[in-house]
Every structure is written in structure tokens, then in C-alpha cells.
TrEMBL record:
UniProt keywords, alphabetically: Chromosome partition, DNA replication, Nucleus
DNA replication complex GINS protein PSF2 N-terminal domain span: 1-48
Organism this protein belongs to: Monilinia fructicola
Name by which UniProt lists this protein: DNA replication complex GINS protein PSF2
Family label: Belongs to the GINS2/PSF2 family.
Compartmental location: Nucleus
Acidic residues compositional bias, start-end: 205-214
Cellular component terms per the entry's GO annotation: GINS complex
Compositionally skewed regions (Basic and acidic residues) per UniProt: 188-197
Length: 214
């Protein structure tokens, strides 16, 4: 869901997910992203960017990321009124009244979509593009370092990682995990071979002792 400011009146629509609010300029209203983009394309509404997509908010998030090289900026907190069955990826964190300084689960996708379709509604879109690019680079570097920590036998937390980041990092993460499995298998084979060699040496020693007794 995103927030729009309608330019024209529009009656409520009965969608599969329920009825939308009636649009009455200049009152804000939340709408599904696809419908907001359609109205924006038809010049019947403007899209209000979520607070986290403002340059000042992205600056603060970037500072959190750079000051904490081992973790990611926290995801949007759960509203006490949110049902316990709702997880962070499904929190409505892209409306105009959502909390700033928190990247939503689909922050890369949402940022690219809004910059392409509604850049005139975003404050300083060039600066926003630059900050999103910097955030993406910093966080992907953390993703790579987290896989190195796993490879070294350590643990790492991926709390706050977005959907697109998980998708992009899947390749090298699965590569590292496959390498760890192969390494573990080779170590197990080496251990068994050493045990067999030790058992063989012990058997040879026992046979020599028996020959000496004879």
C-alpha cells in the first residue's frame, strides 16, 4: 500500500482484497501500489513517497549501516495493533504515515518503482538514487562478509535484510554452503582413513607381539 493525493474524485472500487476508499481531492488515501501507479500514469493522482525514501532519512540509515559493520539497520518495528500472524515483510511500511529511518522488506523494489514512475513526487530524486545505490553497495558488502564468517565457522544475523538482497546474495551464499558441505565431507573421509590406518597399525603390532611370544 502507498499513499496518494487524488486530483479527481473517484468512487470506491470493490477489489479482491476489499473495497478501496473513495478519493476526494485533496484528502490523502492509501491504495494498492498497482492502482496508485495507474492513477499516476493517468495524471489523476500524485503518490506521496514513504518517509524512509526522503534524503534525510536515507542519510541517517546509511550512517547506521556504516557505523555498524557487522549488522544491518533494523527492520520496521511491529505496531502493537498488528496481528501476531503478520511478519515484517507484510507490514504496511510504504505509506506516508509509516515510520522513517527503517528500510522495509522490499525497499530496493519500491525505491526503483517510485523513482521511475513518480520521480516528480520525490524530494531531490537524484540524491535519493545516489543514497539508495550507496546503501545497496554497503549492505551487499556486509552480505559477502557474513558468508565469510559462516565459512570460518562463525554465526551471523541477517535480520533486516531485504527481499532483493536475499535474491541477489543467494548465488554466493549457496556457493559458500556447498563449499562447506564438501569441506565437511572431505574432513570426514580423512578422519575415517586415519581411524582405519590406526586400527591397521594396532593389528600389526598385536601380531608382532604374538610372534615374539612364540
Amino acid at each position: 500500500m502507498v499513499t496518494v493525493v487524488p486530483r479527481q474524485r473517484l468512487e470506491s472500487l470493490d477489489l479482491l482484497g476489499g473495497k478501496t476508499l473513495s478519493l476526494r481531492p485533496p484528502h490523502r488515501a492509501p491504495l494498492p501500489l498497482w492502482l496508485a501507479l495507474l492513477l499516476k500514469r493517468q495524471r489523476r493522482a500524485n503518490i506521496l513517497p514513504p518517509p524512509w525514501l526522503h534524503p534525510h532519512s536515507l542519510d541517517r540509515i546509511l550512517k547506521i549501516e556504516t557505523d555498524n559493520p557487522e549488522g544491518f539497520s533494523p527492520p520496521p518495528p511491529l505496531d502493537p495493533r498488528t496481528p501476531s500472524t503478520v511478519s515484517p515483510p507484510f507490514i504496511p511500511s510504504n505509506t506516508a504515515d509509516s515510520l522513517p529511518d527503517y528500510l522495509p522488506y522490499h525497499w530496493i523494489d519500491m525505491g526503483e518503482i517510485l523513482l521511475e514512475a513518480a520521480s516528480d513526487d520525490i524530494q531531490d530524486p537524484d540524491k535519493v538514487r545516489e543514497l539508495l545505490r550507496d546503501l545497496r553497495e554497503v549492505r551487499m558488502a556486509k552480505m559477502r562478509s557474513s558468508t565469510l564468517a559462516v565459512e570460518g565457522g562463525g554465526l551471523t544475523s541477517l535480520q533486516g535484510v531485504g527481499a532483493m538482497e536475499v535474491s541477489e546474495g543467494r548465488g554466493f551464499i549457496t556457493g559458500v554452503m556447498d563449499g562447506l558441505r564438501k569441506l565437511g565431507a572431505s574432513r570426514e573421509i580423512s578422519r575415517r582413513e586415519k581411524e582405519q590406518e590406526g586400527a591397521g597399525s594396532e593389528a600389526d603390532g598385536n601380531s608382532e607381539d604374538e610372534d615374539m611370544e612364540l
